[in-house]
């Protein structure tokens, strides 16, 4: 960065130990495993499926009238702006969790809600792709999410109560794609 020894010393002391930790063997090993996994053709297919699922999820929610913050996605995440439905992120997150769907409340552009409330939801697709799900399942999840959120918007007081039919749809989907395939158990 510089040929000046004094400046180099300042940069080094700013980086280590403050930002960068020591060369811990377990961290080096974990990074080696990750890099090795990323070199495999299966990882490329997984990464493609993650992105495709995110786009399918965003498209499905858009089709149900939800506003996606960026109009779509080029990342593994879909961010929904709930303000057009009069919903808050914390309540929407809780309603989805009640039905077995994990999301994160998230601030959206020009959000006036505090960070612990928010006006948005963020949904990632890495976990569903890791379970083997693909576009049909992402589309099904978009429908499930929209059903829960529509129910919540229509009945703010009752929307947090579990709808057995929706929870069963989530459960059946999860059973079709178990966290740990039978051959590993």
Automatic annotation (TrEMBL):
InterPro entries: PyrdxlP-dep_Trfase, PyrdxlP-dep_Trfase_major, PyrdxlP-dep_Trfase_small, Ser_HO-MeTrfase-like, SHMT-like_dom. Its cofactor is pyridoxal 5'-phosphate. Keywords: Pyridoxal phosphate. It comes from the Bacteria. Pfam families: SHMT. Residues 6-145 form the Serine hydroxymethyltransferase-like domain. PANTHER family: SERINE HYDROXYMETHYLTRANSFERASE, SERINE HYDROXYMETHYLTRANSFERASE 1. This is Glycine/serine hydroxymethyltransferase. It comes from Mesorhizobium shonense. The lineage of its organism: Bacteria, Pseudomonadati, Pseudomonadota, Alphaproteobacteria, Hyphomicrobiales.
